[in-house]
Structures are given as C-alpha cells and as structure tokens.
Amino acid sequence: MSKVAPIITPDSFDFRQYMAETEPQAKVLGAETWRDSLIDAVKNGTTVTGARLPWAKTHDHIRFRGGEVSLWQGINGHGKSQMLGQACMGFAGQGEPVCIASFEMKPVSTLKRMLRQAAMNDQPGETMAARFMDWLQGKFWLYDQLGTVRPEMIYAVIRYCADKLKIKHIVIDSLMKCVRGEDDYNGQKDFVDMLTGLARDLDVHIHLVHHVRKGENEEKVPGKFDAKGSGAISDQVDQVLTVWRNKKKEKTIASLLRKNQPVDDETRSSPDAMLVVDKNRHGEWEGSVALWYHPQSLQYTPDNRCAPLDMLGVYR
Ligand SMILES: Nc1ncnc2c1ncn2[C@@H]1O[C@H](COP(=O)(O)OP(=O)(O)OP(=O)(O)O)[C@@H](O)[C@H]1O
C-alpha cells in the first residue's frame, strides 16, 4: 500500500467524464418517498445529527451533515484553514472521509500543519509522520492545484470525490479563487448555487472558505453580513461560521512580557480564538464557542488549560 496521502491532480483522472451532466433526475416525487425519514425524525426527536467538531461543548449545537454547505469565513490570517484542518481530522476520525482542495496552500504544507496537530507538539519525528500517513490512508485526500480554478473543474472534482472515493466532506479553500473577482457577484452566486445543488444531490458536506471585508479593526468579530462580495453567498449556504483570532490578547501579552511584567489572570484566561455561528439553518443554536490556542501543536483546545487533543485517537 502506498504510504502517501492520495493527491488528486487535474491529470490523475478523466475530468470530462465528471463534468458531463448526468441524466436529469425526476425531482417531483410523491410525499410517500419521505415516509421513513419523517418517522425517523419524529422518533429521534430533536437529536442533533452529523459530524462533530473536536470540542465536546459544541456537539449539541453545531454539526456537519451530508447535503449541506457551510461557509467558514474570517479575516486574513485569523486561522480559518488551520481550524478547518483540525476539524477535518476529526471528521475523518469519525469515519467520514475528507478531501481538501486548497488553492492557497500546497498539499505538503497542509499535511505539515496537520502533522503537528496530530503529534500534539512542534517537532514531530519520522515515526510520527509515518504513523500519521498510515492513519490518513483511505480517510483523507488532497486536490493539488494552486491559483485560480474554473468552477467546472470544482464541479468535476466534487462529483469524482463523491462517486469514486465516497468522500463525505469537501473543503474548497477559497471561494475567491473559483470566481472571476470580488465584484463578480453573479459568478459568486452561481458558484455557491452549484455547490448547494451538488451537496444535496451527492449527500456530501461542502466547507467553503471565504474572506470578510476589512472592518474598522481586527478586534471586532465579523458577522455574516461582513462576507466579501455578494450577499447571496451567506443567503444560500446552510451554516455560517466565523473564525476570529484574539489579536488584542496576543498584543497585550507581548507588551507585558517586553516590560518584564506578569500576565494577569483575566488576560491569560480570555479566549485566544472564537468560532462564531451566526447562521444555522437546520439547528436552533446560534452563538460563540470560546477556544484556546496551543501554539506548539497549532491546535485549538476547549478551555484555558490549553491541553492539546489526541486527534488520531479521540474517536476510537
Ligand atoms: N489564535 C491564533 N494565535 C496565534 N496564531 C494563530 C492563531 N490563529 C492562526 N494563527 C497563525 O496564523 C497563521 C494563519 O493561519 P491560517 O492560514 O489558518 O489563516 P487563514 O484565516 O486561513 O488565512 P488566509 O485568509 O490568509 O488564508 C498561521 O501561521 C497560524 O498558525
């Protein structure tokens, strides 16, 4: 068995086959079709279903189900890709295979970051790297293309991932690399429309990374109305999550340390990052999740003890 995480490239399969539309499906079906689903929903009451984030305190609030699209937005450098990488390891560990299509980071850079998260430290050795690669087999794929990409290619990649590889979570990082520009509102609307249709038809969850407009400052947590480009982006997706980094805390600590002064408890215990959910179409909960950053492992942790999680073993 190969010991590298499978990398999908534009040359590694026949994209044309997956670009072609399939036969139009009959979309008008008798209500009876949904009998079992309705009865299951009644039986399970308000049970929340779907893949979980790595932090137990989020499990009753936010989940990631097939058929839906989540927008992961935030200011540049606030940790969207890093947090999503940790979340994806968690999805894979729950038995839901993942493909990351990053047009901003090389596959090996994504893997290096995830390796530190898996190792729970900043200096994983060869043995850990080999163990990590073994763990990824059959769970994790990366699409290798940097720069801009045509929407038709994304369409083909998603269909290939779902049909052939049985992948359940697909990350598109980021939206602006898939459209003509920030002012191409129709292109953005059509692209997100395509993603919602594909997610529904293929029963996969699509995680779409997106930037927010520059606000007055980085200390203000952006909301769903701050997404760059068309307002239709957040209207169309099922969930909007904002990743926000507490730069004010970082600056305060750096300044105290420079002056050889102790860091007070209040500053120390305030969260390093927040994950804000301000749209949750199929759940009732909206709110903020406080997280603490463990810099050695690049992991987000659930409380101010800052103890990294065993991402490879947590769901066994
Ligand atoms: N809360 C944090 N504390 C300290 N460093 C952080 C924090 N969040 C992210 N970083 C660091 O900031 C850098 C950027 O992270 P990342 O690439 O995930 O951000 P991003 O939001 O995806 O950025 P971009 O929009 O530019 O792609 C990384 O080096 C990461 O380790």
UniProtKB/TrEMBL annotation:
Domain SF4 helicase span(s) in chain numbering: 44-307
Superkingdom: Bacteria
SUPFAM superfamilies from the UniProt entry: P-loop containing nucleoside triphosphate hydrolases (SSF52540)
BP terms from Gene Ontology: DNA replication
One Pfam family hit: AAA_25
Molecular-function GO term, any one: 5'-3' DNA helicase activity
InterPro entries for this protein: DNA_helicase_DnaB-like_C, P-loop_NTPase, Twinkle-like
Protein source organism: Eoetvoesiella caeni
Gene3D superfamilies: P-loop containing nucleotide triphosphate hydrolases
Name of the protein: Twinkle protein
